[in-house]
Amino acid sequence: MPVLTRPVLEINLPALLDNYYNLQKLAPNAIAAAVVKDDAYGLGAEEVSAYLYKYGNCRHFFVAHAVEGANIRSQIPEAIIYVLQGMGDDNVSLFKRYNLTPVISSSEQLIFWKQNRITDIKPVVHIETGLNRLGFREQDLAGLSTEDIAGFGLVMSHLACADVCGHFMNVKQLDNFIRLRNQYFKDIPASLSASDGVFLGEEYHFDMVRLGAAMYGINTAPNRPNTMKAIVTVKAPVLEIAPLAQGEYVGYSATYRADTQRNIAIVSIGYGDGYPRSLSNVGKVYLHKNHQRSEIRVIGRVSMDNLICDVTGISNIEVGDMVNILDDTYTLDNIGQDAGTISYEILSRIGKNTRFERRYLK
Amino acid sequence: MPVLTRPVLEINLPALLDNYYNLQKLAPNAIAAAVVKDDAYGLGAEEVSAYLYKYGNCRHFFVAHAVEGANIRSQIPEAIIYVLQGMGDDNVSLFKRYNLTPVISSSEQLIFWKQNRITDIKPVVHIETGLNRLGFREQDLAGLSTEDIAGFGLVMSHLACADVCGHFMNVKQLDNFIRLRNQYFKDIPASLSASDGVFLGEEYHFDMVRLGAAMYGINTAPNRPNTMKAIVTVKAPVLEIAPLAQGEYVGYSATYRADTQRNIAIVSIGYGDGYPRSLSNVGKVYLHKNHQRSEIRVIGRVSMDNLICDVTGISNIEVGDMVNILDDTYTLDNIGQDAGTISYEILSRIGKNTRFERRYLK
Questions:
Q1: Where do you find CATH 3.20.20.10 in chain A?
Q2: Which of A117, A146, A141 is nearest to A128 (CA)?
Q3: CB contact B349 to A (< 8 Å)
Q4: What is the ipTM of this complex?
Q5: d(CA A320, CA A289)
Q6: The Cα angle at residue A186 between residues A184 and A190, in degrees rounded to 5
Q7: Subunit contact B85:A2, Cβ cutoff 8 A
Q8: Of A274, A273, A277, A298, which is closest to residue A286 (Cα–Cα)?
Q9: Which residue in the set B67, B164, B240 is minimally distant from A355, CB to CB?
Q10: What is the model's pLDDT at position A354?
């Protein structure tokens, strides 16, 4: 057996592309933009953007911050890069240098834009329809001049409850969006839905859908089976296997005590790698070996670099084995649920470290 | 007012150095090693290591993974870099290239070391004393040869409950450590304590203490007042301020409903920046303005890039203001407690993104 120390993060780019195509098929009349903010939800915005640009012919990308747009520009030279948090004193130079397109959500940002316009860039106007997050409120729209409005390249809003088909908020926001668009932005292309909204039906698609979570394999409609492919696998090596005598304690603060003699394995992944500490005494990892899948329970506190698990009765586990932390069977959605959060947060955390060996399947 | 979009992470290196010195004073006869694993708990291992090396004369550094050692080597050319997860097939080339010192925790790793020895490197032997995580078990130690033992430069173990002075585990582990050291490693320098162990008294100090959490300002003895300085400040800009009508909902899944007319602010930080989603409807942020500190409640779900908060009655808040997410008053320990986790996990997450503007006070 090899001696291994390092967790591995595998990102299946062809599966991501399949998800992109399948979402696109559900919204065939809309432009399929890719949401690659937060470093493509932790999976590497450069690699993800380059792949979608090259193989998916994607030409519209959304990031949250200008610095994220700057980081991917060289990979997607001809694309439009929309920056959701908008333009300000702390990033205007990046907008100019990397030819980024601001999403304008407030009067303050609009004034700033007019003072710092970039030739050939048509900004997006973001309007509030019920999420009560970013966006022009209805009462602000009357203040827009005809010239302001003519300058926008896209009008967008964002749904609060698109993960639940039939939620009253969806219809309310759709009605608000149509009404405000007709009143102020009649001739401007429109975008309301992220990937969860794609599943709500054609009336939610307008001219552009913004594909993020579902493209990354997350089930954005938890009440229905996931139709997307899992694209992320995380594995970590077993560093050590040892007996644990009855009455012994495991991990920080001695939260686990062995009622009987056990065997334990020390695995090289912890909350420093984005594995949630809330999975202390709760998490599950999986050994795939000799065509068998064995479920293994995490015991004791998850620490920064390691977790400890109970491998009593799993006779074929050895030092150097890789155990699966998440895969296409124990998915992001499963681990999110077990950890008391959502898969989005898990994904965003998992990719945020430099200790993984990162493998892109291409 | 400026228009701002980007959260800011400030790291006070002189305060970190003060913490390092103050911990050193508590253990004056021990070498003060710095623990800079997990990218110095997210604060930037290169900057932190370089500063401690240059101004603190620190020459012993602990990382978890070889890749972390490789990343800091150029900053600390003459230092010993100990790698806690050990040496294996997946990192041996980094050990050789960057002159790293493995911590050997198992028979498998010892065999690997003997096959891949590096001239002039004396590895650390890690022994188990009660945490039941990494380390040689007592029954394995009898298998070590005299030559194996003579080759080690340090014998170490790690405490499970050092955050609680008087915990029965501390004495148990101390006794085990002394007994095993006397039996097997009599002439080899020893290290038992991380920063929490420093506060347990001189008998826990041995020849080296490994300073991590407390140096970063975390209170490692939560039952006592923190004697360390806070070294981290996180601020995020207000992107937008808007009225919220009675009956309106806020954020994903509409988890907050306004019973009365409110004013809300949209702040540019979210779980993508390491702000815990578990602070949805629970978190607090702070406005410092005109010599006043106002507490502001987070309402609705925390999303990836933003949080929303209730600023009703805070008449002086404006778009472009920076609110404090954590500082020396609302500390890492406070936010950890509110989020249902420990400050270590918060710190490790906060620093793991490239969207912050990162400022080092030097």
A1: 13-216
A2: A141
A3: yes
A4: 0.95
A5: 12
A6: 100
A7: no
A8: A298
A9: B67
A10: 80
- Assess B318–A contact: CB distance below 8 Å, yes or no: no
Check CB contact under 8 Å for A268 and B85.
Answer: yes
CA A158 to chain centre: 16
Cα angle B219, B224, B230 (rounded to 5 degrees) comes to: 30
Residue A222: pLDDT band (50, 70, 90) is: confident
What residue ranges of chain B are covered by domains with CATH 2.40.37.10?
232-361
Q: Which sequence positions of A are flagged as catalytic?
A: 37, 252
pLDDT tens digits for A49-68? 999 999 999 999 999 999 99
Out of B1, B160, B237, the one facing A254 most closely (by C-beta) is: B160
Q: What residues in A contact B109, CB-CB < 8 Å?
A: 3, 239
Rounded to the nearest integer, the mean pLDDT of chain A is 96
The second-level CATH assignment, the architecture, of A13-216 is Alpha-Beta Barrel (3.20)
Mean pLDDT by 10 residues, chain B (362 residues): 96 98 97 97 96 98 98 98 98 98 97 96 98 96 95 98 95 98 96 97 98 96 89 97 97 97 98 95 96 97 97 96 96 94 91 90 96
What pLDDT, on the 0 to 100 scale, is given for residue B353? 79
Q: Does A133 touch chain B (CB under 8 A)?
A: yes
User: pLDDT digit string (tens) for A187-221?
Assistant: 999 999 999 999 999 999 999 999 999 999 999 98
- 3-class SS of residue B290: coil
pLDDT for the residue numbered B88: 97
Tally the residues of chain B: 362
pLDDT at position B333 is 93
Q: What is the pLDDT of residue A319?
A: 96
For residues A45 and A52, the answer to whether their CB atoms sit within 8 Å is no
Catalytic site positions of B: 37, 252
Cα separation, A212 vs B304, whole angstroms: 12
Could A90 and B248 be called an inter-chain contact, meaning their C-beta atoms sit closer than 8 Å? no
The reply to whether residue A134 touches residue B242, judged by beta carbons under 8 angstroms, is no
User: Percent of chain B having pLDDT more than 70?
Assistant: 100
Query: Least CA distance to B83: which residue of chain A?
Result: A5
Q: Which CATH superfamily is domain B232-361 in?
A: Lyase, Ornithine Decarboxylase; Chain A, domain 1 (2.40.37.10)
